[in-house]
Amino acid sequence: MERETDIDSLESTEPIAEECAPCPRRQVRSLIFHFLYAMDSFGYDASAESLVDQFNRGFETDVPLDGEVINAVKTIVENRQKYDDMLVPLLANWRLERIGCCTHLVLRIALWELTETDTHPTIVVNEAIELAKCFSEKDAYKFVNGVIDKAIKQLKS
User: Fold this and answer.
1) Which SS3 state, helix, strand or coil, does residue 22 take?
2) CATH of the domain at 156
3) Domain coverage including residue 121
4) CB 110 within 8 A of CB 128
5) What does the mean pLDDT of the chain come to?
6) How many domains does the chain have?
7) 151, 135 in Cβ contact below 8 A?
8) 74 is a domain residue
9) Within 10 Å of residue 89's Cβ, how many Cβ atoms?
10) Per-residue pLDDT at 20
11) What whole-number distance in Å separates Cα of residue 110 and Cα of residue 106?
12) Which of 113, 109, 99, 114 is nearest to 152 (CA)?
């Protein structure tokens, strides 16, 4: 199965997201990941709005400052400690500090989606695996699958 690459979509001359309404869900998740990665890179000192503005100008996109993507990013950033606290008991023989940045962000996005949206858990798992395959270490998707599976079982009980 061939993976989608975000690089291909960034090279397009068409905007990635116009109010994100027609934007495919996978692309929305990818945008959320990219903005979270940028925020993490800046130590969460840069505002989400400034990053979106730079992204919009740099890639000629139109991600709205009050849309779904920015709201998700803000929620995940504001609640990152809550999501990390949820992760700790799910990490068998792992410490949170040992998880790579990209894998950590994928897990936060999945936990946000499980707890804050109506997305079916199966979709959350599949999309987290795809994000991990695209952006994390080689076999991180297996780790993500196991952790999110545990999270779903824990949230059900």
Assistant:
1) coil
2) 1.10.940.10
3) 79-157
4) yes
5) 86
6) 2
7) no
8) no
9) 10
10) 42
11) 6
12) 114
pLDDT per position as a tens digit, 79-125: 999 999 999 999 988 899 999 999 999 999 999 999 999 999 999 99
Region 60-68: mean pLDDT is 89
120 domain residue, yes or no: yes
Examine the domain organization and report whether 51 and 14 are in the same domain.
yes
- Which has more confidence, 126 or 11? 126
Residue 139 and residue 97 share a domain: yes
Both tokens of 15, joined, read 């905007």
Among 100, 99, 91, 82, residue whose Cα is nearest residue 147: 91
**DSSP characters over 95-154:** -GGGS-HHHHHHHHHHHHHHHHS---HHHHHHHHHHHHHHHS-TTHHHHHHHHHHHHHHH
Q: Which DSSP state fits 14?
A: S
Q: Residue 28: what pLDDT? A: 92
Element (H, E) at 155: helix 140-156
